[in-house]
Design goal:
heterodimer; A: alpha/beta; FAD/NAD(P)-binding domain; five-stranded parallel beta sheet; 27 helices; globular; B: alpha+beta; NADH Oxidase; four-stranded antiparallel beta sheet; 7 helices; 12% strand; elongated
């Protein structure tokens, strides 16, 4: 049994209590069912950051309320802190938006489509990625998987098709060219795939660095151009979006393979982003893999996409279940194959190819043989693929079902060509000298994407292995942010491209719905007629009509709103509140900072959050541990970057945590004598009440009241009553000082930095 | 003449009444829990009211049903929860008396206004910082903007009340809709923000897993429907000879 050893033993016990408190908060009853509670437990060294902020708050207190702040920030001497946070803004993070790796505000652009504001809807998409039209065609749409409409025994909203409609409708709208910020720093990006293009866009446009992309192939786009056939991604779409990036001033050097990072640094580049993708095909390691007629899927697709004439036979077997396999199969049909069979060792549910890609492959005549694994390839007159049937077992470490061959189930498939598309891995040039992880991928710091070499970052498929387009874009965004920080910037890449939203006067979506008069159903994508699909590489998906898009937008359940339209927050409808919140988000460039916490708030979500906080504090009391609920210290943690998605954080300190009052022994204010105050007829109140002498409603000076009592003076030089405007301005200055201190902590802890210039600008604008 | 109300169903029997009385005791203790919850600034601002009785609960439930048809998105929530307002043993209402007229003034920005609470003040009739509470006109269900921090504070009060309920092993659940309806009816009249907590001591806590279309398919309606169609259950009338002449269920 551990013995009581002063703080150590107490701390261990308190940590356990904190976990009980966290459990209580998690299981607290809900009011709206839409408030997600997030928590963090801090102890020991982790508390030091807080006390540094507290010191800053005290040092630079506002003219009037400095002492108040000192008190409000005082947590006593707790040993463990439980931070409880929630996003209580009226804009609930809808599941679709949460599922998107780059966080595109899906409900917002669906709402704007319904209002007939297609340009604005497109701008909302463009706020999060520089390749929106590409995304609208090839994204695997994790948003649709999480759509709540799909969870109520209905089909999910056709989010991808709506995005495609908005982007097509706003085809001619170009984002403005960068604001001309120039830092003089140079960044080399190796690879012009989605990760490289995204990083280059943000590094140039938002951060102001000079960016050069080095591309080994003769055309830019990486896997978008080499791996995705034209019938899914027309080249004019890809070229147009790449051209937009070039117009910003990003230089793309084609046909330039980088073999050494040293040379780049010698050329004067300050940082390098390695986004070389994964282009080395994986092998099946079975007999006959090197026979003539057996080709790898990636090479085949590259040849198809660059117009080279790789010939295939009439009967083709494609091995694999990802998009490369499905695309290879569809491309062979367009190259004259008559019978194409995909061999996949697991079941249809485990195929990694996108659902609509698989559906269209089947529509075009591709057969899919699931639970069939090639065991050998032989060559007689023709090629023969010997396969064995598989059965699914219990899930393995990756969560996918394990595989067991079924004895005696072997069968043979006679073919002319075999295409192997079972995956790829990155191929690092030997002189790069970077550490590799599993599967030949680059090893990076997960938080910053930095490699073990200073100034070198890596991301995309080169780090994750073959992944989706949108995950590569997310990696590009993350890399841009951290490269900017490495180069001395703040790493802020958020853009506000959509204009301030207004409440619509009319709803084209509702009008369209009234015309049809039916319960809307998920629309089917218009497709190129089947007979035309195989005669060339024309785009197969033709998009939704305007009418269908408007009607589809009405199926959105608006999960981002609480939906009572109660008016408690001050706005008449939830939608109005959401619009107000999002306009503020735009106004602040992605940082919706209030003064201490982030508003506006949905009152019911705050109440719901309060229940959870109370249950945490109550759980501490059930364990006979001293605790309280502290709101203002939570604001400091929020600024330091804890629980980043929360609009409000409340601290439940555990351990000795009584706040000290002015006049208590040890407070340094012992000379404050409440009795003397009382004699003067002043009421002794809780300190925040002192500041009630100012503010628009507290216009005592205007009422001719004396605003500076002599009894204030001796111990409280700074605690004087001042004019309303001065007081408000000093609060703003103090707030900024706390932001600066918090940003230092963020920098140390490698979390997203605060946009200090923007915050300064906002605070200055609010000064009277 | 006072109203004399007679119904033969559903029963409000003496045994029901005993259980409800016990639930009222629980609700009273929950109210104490609410009053001792952590309080922002240590300022008293909690208001509570306990509502029980067939007529009173029916009144709140009907108001909830009325509000249901004033909203689109949450209609089913109002309708479902109106059933629960009828079904619980007692409703504990908790409100915050300061959210409307005396904002926190903590420089917080939680409501998105300036640090001097001007978002609240500018939307009120007020003089020298004293808000006119007599203006109760409102286009919305709640007369906002309310002080957001005090909305959060109400959560502490409700949380403590619910924590007491867990200690007393009574079923309790907070409802926005009950609070909205009760406040409209004049309960917790000093509070702009009211939450209703349904408290019940029954073997089945129905609100935990309501059926689809709960306002139509719930225990009370189901039982009542069966009563109306008792013959469909295979209940045969004891026809023929008088049952005193022999047991009619015996085969002949």
């Amino acid at each position: 049994m551990p013995k009581y050893d002063g703080n150590v033993f107490a701390q261990e016990g308190l940590l356990q209590v904190a976990q009980h408190c966290a459990q209580a908060a998690l299981h607290a009853p809900q009011l709206t069912g839409k408030t997600e509670i997030k928590m963090e437990i801090l102890t020991g060294e982790e508390l030091k950051d807080y006390f540094s902020i507290q010191g800053e708050a005290n040092k630079r207190g506002a003219v009037l309320s400095g002492e108040t702040y000192k008190l409000a920030y005082d947590l006593g001497q707790p040993q463990v802190l439980l931070l409880i946070g929630a996003d209580a803004t009226p804009d609930v993070k809808a599941p679709c938006r949460a599922a998107c790796p780059v966080g595109i505000d899906v409900p917002r652009y669906i709402r704007l489509i319904g209002d007939g504001k297609y340009d604005q809807a497109a701008a909302v998409v463009r706020e999060k990625l520089p390749l929106p039209s590409v995304c609208a065609r090839i994204c695997h749409a994790p948003c649709e998987t999480r759509c709540r409409r799909g969870a109520i025994r209905d089909n999910p909203i056709a989010i991808l098709a709506l995005k495609r409609f908005a982007m097509d409708a706003a085809l001619n709208v170009k984002p403005t060219v960068s604001g001309g910020k120039v830092t003089g720093r140079r960044v080399a990006v190796i690879g012009s795939g989605p990760a490289g293009l995204t990083a280059a866009y943000y590094l140039k446009r938002v951060c102001g660095h000079a960016v050069t992309i080095f591309e080994a192939f003769s055309e830019p786009g990486g896997m978008l151009r080499m791996g995705v056939p034209e019938y899914r991604l027309p080249r004019e779409i890809l070229d147009r979006e790449i051209d937009m990036i070039k117009e910003l001033g990003v230089e793309i050097k084609l046909g330039t393979k980088i073999e050494s990072l040293n040379k780049l640094f010698q050329q004067g580049y300050d940082a390098v982003f390695v986004a070389i993708g994964a282009h080395r095909p994986a092998r099946m390691e079975i007999e006959g893999e090197d026979l003539p007629g057996v080709i790898d899927g990636l090479s085949f697709l590259r040849d198809v996409n660059t117009g080279k004439g790789t010939k295939v036979g009439e009967r083709v077997a494609v091995v694999g279940g990802g998009n490369a396999a499905v695309d290879a199969a569809r491309a062979t049909l367009r190259r004259g194959a008559k019978e194409v069979t995909i061999l996949y060792r697991r079941s249809m549910a485990q195929m990694r190819g996108h659902r609509n890609n698989i559906d269209q492959a089947q529509r075009e005549g591709v057969k899919i043989e699931v639970l069939a694994s090639p065991a050998a390839i032989t060559r007689g007159d023709n090629l023969e693929v010997k396969c064995v049937r598989m059965k699914l077992g219990s899930p393995d470490a990756t969560g996918r079902p394990s595989l067991e061959p079924i004895e005696g189930s072997e069968f043979t498939l006679p073919v002319d060509t075999v295409i192997v598309a079972i995956g790829q891995s990155p191929e690092m040039p030997p002189d790069f000298g970077l550490s590799l992880g599993g599967g030949g991928t680059f090893r990076v710091d997960d938080a910053t994407l930095s490699t073990d070499r200073k100034g070198v970052f890596a991301g995309g498929d080169a780090v994750s292995g073959p992944a989706s387009f949108i995950e590569a874009v997310a990696a590009g965004r993350k890399a841009a942010s951290w490269i900017d920080q490495y180069l001395g910037g703040l790493g802020i890449i958020d853009e506000a491209l959509a204009p301030a939203e207004e409440m619509p006067r009319m709803s084209p979506a509702k009008e369209a719905l009234q015309m049809t008069g039916d319960d809307p159903k998920r629309p089917s994508m218009q497709l190129l007629p089947k007979e035309q699909t195989l005669s060339g590489f024309a785009e197969v998906e033709l998009g939704l009509s305007e009418q269908a898009s408007l009607i589809e937008s009405t199926r959105c359940l608006k999960c981002n709103e609480i939906g009572y339209d109660c008016g408690a927050c001050g706005f008449k409808t939830c939608r109005e509140a959401v619009i107000n919140y999002q306009n503020r988000l735009n106004e602040t460039g992605g940082e919706p900072w209030g003064w201490l916490v982030k508003g506006p708030s949905c009152i019911w979500r705050l109440t719901e959050f309060g229940i959870a906080v109370d249950w945490a504090a109550a759980a501490a009391h059930r364990h006979n541990v001293e605790s309280r609920v502290a709101m203002i210290p939570g604001t400091a943690f929020m600024r330091m970057g804890h629980l980043p998605d929360c609009s409000m954080i409340v601290v439940v300190p555990l351990g000795p945590c009584k706040e000290r009052w002015y006049f208590e022994p040890g407070s340094g204010r012992e000379d404050f004598r409440p009795f003397a105050t009382a004699r003067r007829g002043q009421m002794l109140q809780y300190p925040p009440l002192w500041i009630r002498f100012t503010g628009p409603g507290r216009d005592f000076p205007r009422r001719g009241m004396k605003t500076k009592d002599e009894w204030w003076e001796p111990p409280y030089e700074r605690l004087e009553i001042v004019k309303d405007d001065d007081w408000g301005n000093s609060v703003l200055d103090r707030d900024y000082a706390i932001f600066v201190a918090a940003d230092k902590v963020r920098e140390q802890n490698k979390v997203k930095r605060l946009n200090l210039p923007k915050i300064r600008e906002i605070l200055d604008a609010k000064k009277k | 003449m006072p109203r004399i109300i007679i119904r033969d169903w559903p029963p409000y029997s003496p045994t029901d009444q005993q259980r409800r009385d016990n639930a009222v005791i629980a609700a009273k203790l929950m109210m104490n829990g609410a009053l001792t919850a952590p309080s922002i600034g240590g300022i008293p601002m909690t208001e509570g009211e306990i509502v029980y009785g067939e007529e009173e609960q029916e009144q709140i439930a009907r108001k909830m049903e009325e509000l249901a048809y004033e909203t689109d998105a949450q209609r089913h929530v109002f309708l479902y929860e109106a059933v629960m307002a009828r079904g619980v043993d007692v409703i504990l209402l908790l409100g915050n008396t300061r959210a409307y007229s005396d904002p926190w003034d903590g420089e917080c920005g939680l409501c998105a206004g300036r640090p001097d609470c001007s978002f609240v003040y500018e939307n009120r009739m007020q003089s020298t910082g004293i808000i006119d509470k007599t203006d109760r006109r409102s286009e919305t269900m709640v007369k906002g903007p309310l002080c957001a921090v005090y909305g959060h504070q109400l959560g502490y009060n409700i949380g403590s009340a619910l924590m007491v309920a867990t200690h007393l092993y009574v079923d309790a659940r907070p409802f926005i809709t009950m609070g909205l309806a009760a406040q409209k009816l004049g309960y917790c009249r000093n509070s702009a923000l009211v939450i209703g907590i349904g408290v019940a001591a029954k073997s089945k806590c129905e609100p935990s897993d309501p059926a689809l279309d709960y306002h139509l398919i719930n225990m009370e309606r189901a039982v009542d429907t069966i009563r109306g169609n008792v013959n469909q259950l295979g209940v045969r009338p004891a026809s023929g000879l008088d049952y005193r002449s022999g047991d009619p269920s015996e085969k002949r």
